[in-house]
Amino acid sequence: MAKALFRLQKFLRRTQFLLLFLTAAYLMAGSLLLLQRTGLGTQQGSRGTAAAQALPLLEGMPGDGMAEPGTLQSPRQAARLLVGMDTLQEPALEQWHSPRWLVSRNLELRQLRRRWFHRFISEQEPMQTVGFKAMKHTAEHKGTYVGCFSDDSRERTLKGAVFYDLRKMTVSHCQEACAERAYALAGLAYGAECYCGNQLPASAAKPEECNSECKGEKGSVCGGVNRLSVYRVEELRAAARQRRNVIYRGCFRAPENLTDTFPASLLQPNLTVEMCSEFCSKKEFPLAVIPGQECYCGYPTGRFPLRHGADGQLCSAGQAGYCQVYQTPVQDTRCTDRKFLATKSKVFVALSSFPGAGNTWARHLIEHATGYYTGSYYFDGALYNKGFKGEKDHWRSRRTICVKTHESGRTEIEMFDSAILLIRNPYKSLVAEFNRKYAGHLGYATDRAWRSKEWPDFVNSYASWWASHVLDWLKYGKRLLVVHYEELKQSLIPKLKEMVEFLNMTVTEDRLLCVENNRDGNFKRSGAKQKDFEPFTQEMKELIDRYILTVDEALRERNFTGLPREYVPR
């Protein structure tokens, strides 16, 4: 009996030790996971797997594989670049299991967790009504608070302009943005969304239903779930008038029947451009049309497409049958409504490009033409704040019309059923991506950055990626539509039609004209441009030109149109 008790006691001691060991191991694992989440790189909008994207360099040329600037290795002699598509080598097995690949995949997991976290927060915040009674529409806001209103996304009244800011939205920011665009009302929803217009929503809501705190202003209310906190901003419009941009679009032949073509008109003695623009802005029209001493407001339409301008002297001389056209601060709203697909898409479509090739701009065009959001393989908070709501949606949800990606490599490509492959002049792409890395989506890198060691290292690594990206998609892509950025920019409507048809969508002519009227969106770079100097050395040009010839030959072998002639010589 004593022997049995001794054995039992010995077993229990071992069990206690085992439990203690497992507990310690569990706590250590949790600590390591926490360190991984907070310690590793958190750069948003990561450009994908580096090792799999590099193309072997031409024999005798310096360079190395694709990597982020901070992780560039020293240049080394590389293998010969093979021109034939069938002779392209698969990435070595070691590349897929290298630490760099592991970091890339860990980054992807963190991005997925980030998406889940933002979605969870957005679902929970409207429910947190405790304490919101203390929030007030303070007097420091320059606009006049009107009330809380219901917001129907299908029949939105305040749709003149839309802004998002997931982190820094404030009441004052929304009011000023709407006033600068000549709107009388500013409405906020979900704590981060701003809507402008001139007509109050039809249905009022209970004050307590506007219960979302502004993301950038504690203690202030920015609407709620399907609820708008609405302010009048007329008193701000006079101060904002000086900052408004009224853009001269040119002299055009007037349509035969002006009253049928344009929905609003103004007849006033001593008419000025400012009078006409102000009148059309109040009516929420993006065009102010002035034939002689009359003022008409409207949109670009099939009757008045604004594609073929006339000699400006005809308008200056008051020639009958011609009119001056101005772009008001008001946004053309016929193509601004967007939503997620009601049912999952059966075809998984990629919008693939090398970084800096205009992917964001192409997404803007596609979303406004089709009315559906585009997704992204990455999560970029800056783009979400610009209105790309698909950034927060999981890239494999199939609720978006297509998915942005910069990935290459067989595995990543074969996940998609078809793809729009966007190609841009590598010289322009490299400059654009370098600007983005050092100054964000809309800024310019400083002269110091251009003249630093980072620039030649960047070119040596990224130039090979530009070529390998196209070659991989040509080799492994199942169904491709090749679009050249330069041709899309020059012939927007025909090329955009082609892209929309490839996505199996139909679009009206008026909606396409609306897209053309809003073609730039909010994506023109601002700030001081870099000075006029040639950033590419002769050695860089020789390297890039060889890649251009390789890609051009590969496109022609696949029966696609070769690269535009402007790419080479340089």
TrEMBL record:
<feature type="domain" description="WSC">
    <location>
        <begin position="245"/>
        <end position="335"/>
    </location>
</feature>
<dbReference type="InterPro" id="IPR000863">
    <property type="entry name" value="Sulfotransferase_dom"/>
</dbReference>
<dbReference type="GO" id="GO:0008146">
    <property type="term" value="F:sulfotransferase activity"/>
</dbReference>
<feature type="domain" description="WSC">
    <location>
        <begin position="142"/>
        <end position="234"/>
    </location>
</feature>
<keyword id="KW-0677">Repeat</keyword>
<comment type="similarity">
    <text>Belongs to the WSCD family.</text>
</comment>
<dbReference type="InterPro" id="IPR002889">
    <property type="entry name" value="WSC_carb-bd"/>
</dbReference>
<dbReference type="InterPro" id="IPR051589">
    <property type="entry name" value="Sialate-O-sulfotransferase"/>
</dbReference>
<dbReference type="Pfam" id="PF01822">
    <property type="entry name" value="WSC"/>
</dbReference>
<protein>
    <submittedName>
        <fullName>WSCD1 protein</fullName>
    </submittedName>
</protein>
<dbReference type="InterPro" id="IPR027417">
    <property type="entry name" value="P-loop_NTPase"/>
</dbReference>
<dbReference type="Pfam" id="PF00685">
    <property type="entry name" value="Sulfotransfer_1"/>
</dbReference>
